Amino acid sequence: MSLLIKNGRIITATDDYVADVFVDGERVTHIGPALRQQADTVIDATDKLVIPGGIDAHTHMDMPFGGTKSSDDFDTGTVAAACGGTTTIVDYAIQSRGQSALAGLDTWRKKADGKATIDYAFHMIITDMPDERITELRRLADEGVTSCKMFMAYPGVLYADDGALYRAFRHAGEDGTRVCLHAENGIVIDEIIKEAVRDKKLAPVWHGRTRPTRMEAESVHRAIAIAEVARAPLFIVHLSSADALEEIKRARARGVDVEAETCPQYLFLDESFYLREGNGGFEGAKWVMSPPLREKWNQEPLWQGLALKHLSTVATDHCPFFFNASWKPGDPPPARPGKELGREGFTKIPNGAPGVENRMALMFQGGVVEGRLSLNRFVEVTSTAPAKLFGMFPKKGTIAVGSDADIVVFDPKRTETIGVANERTHHMRVDYSAFEGITVKGYPETVISRGRLIVDKGSVKTRGGGQFVKRARVGQLLR
Ligand code: URP
Ligand code: ZN
Ligand code: ZN
């Protein structure tokens, strides 16, 4: 199969020029003006942007969590991702407590292999790391899983104490693995939650009010200090507040190897969503996620953090759960249990929200259209930087001869209003949209994954065919 994309404006993290792109099989083989190659398929990209496929380095497909499991699997979730212009995800596999991390990888490979439509890689969530298991980090890296995630939040579930962090950092640094951290002080937060529950403060708004930004900033600060002493590269996931961002800035200014991602929800939504009326005061559960949505004033510092490179990437933390609006206490459990599990109290609301389909359009709107990010920086934060940080560059994250043909033809003029009832913006298997009603200018039109036409003029052309990406170690290239 060959493809010729004609006359598009090619944007990478560094370049901006008009040319044709020729794809032979899975890779880009020629780029230049007026290419004469004969192709099976010709795509006219006049007046369109031709950008590297998005890389969403933080998703949770088919994940057991909060008494249920996330509602998108690797089939529905990766089709939705493709429709939104993302051609690679890095999902979080889980090591079950007391079990081998390699067994966890096996479980997640089985969930994805043969099901995914776009390419996928895995980080490994480490729940415990006794000495006899620590060598598994190296074996995971040999398998192409060159990052792991640990939690300073969720005590008793996924929480790792400072000693476990230090030991993991020591080994990760030596093995060429990047440690990703969920930085919230779960121990203190649990105490605050106990006080709220004792005082019968059980509505969704208390999810946000029990997780102050200081407890995020404190964890970021502590994690940086531990990683610095252990001499390991650190990556803070889903950073949500200006308070936490200040810690990143301070550390980077003194040369610490710490990078951070933020997410569209922290750039577009705010804590007032928890007070939204409807569904008997439970509407706010749609946005119960950790860290929670913050006061609106945090948004501009985060955008500025992206523009000035204090923040490196934007991922979704896609972790959808059905809202099940019509379910009433006493009814049999809904087909896909979700947010209603917390009707009696916010502590039982499964944490997470959908977004894998909306990231590229939202970032183009808030970044490029609204003048906060250049086109090059938009490509960098949504594709190139995650490829580089997570060992997939230059195979992925750019448009260059020899790179995988993961390409999005993006129409900068097409307008869409994101919503659960808009079938052009919602393929995710979940009954609400976290970004309902937001209008974006600019939308993916054609999406190519390793040379396969997945989405053409908005309609899905094929499913399946996604492959596992065996990632390189920190600082190494993948070809
Ligand atoms: O609320 C969230 N973020 N759910 C997904 C799990 C995690 O902490 O990333
Ligand atoms: Zn997390
Ligand atoms: Zn997450």
Walk me through this protein's architecture.
The protein is an alpha/beta fold. The protein has a domain at 53-369: Metal-dependent hydrolases (TIM Barrel, Alpha-Beta Barrel), CATH 3.20.20.140. It is 27% helix and 23% strand. Helix 7 runs parallel beside helix 8 (242-253). The longest helix has 18 residues, at 213-230. One zinc ion binds next to loops.
Question: What are the key terms here?
Answer:
479 residues, alpha/beta, TIM Barrel, nine-stranded mixed β-sheet, eight-stranded parallel β-sheet, 12 helices, globular, binds N-(aminocarbonyl)-beta-alanine, binds zinc ion
Q: How much strand?
A: 15-25%
Low-pLDDT segments: none
Distance between the termini: 21 Å
Bound small molecules, which ones?
A: N-(aminocarbonyl)-beta-alanine, zinc ion
Helix-strand makeup class: alpha/beta
Helix content: 25-40%
Provide a count of the helices: 12
Main CATH class of the domain at 53-369: Alpha Beta
**CATH-scheme architecture of the domain at 53-369:** Alpha-Beta Barrel
Global outline: globular
What fold name goes in the CATH topology slot of the domain at 53-369? TIM Barrel
Round the mean pLDDT to the nearest integer and report it. Answer: 97
Number of strands: 19
CATH superfamily of the domain at 53-369: Metal-dependent hydrolases
Main beta sheet, described? 9 strands, mixed
**Cα Rg:** 21 Å
Offer a concise description of the structure.
27% of the residues lie in helices and 23% in strands. The protein is α/β, with parallel strands linked by helices and 479 residues long. It has a domain at 53-369: Alpha-Beta Barrel (TIM Barrel), CATH 3.20.20.
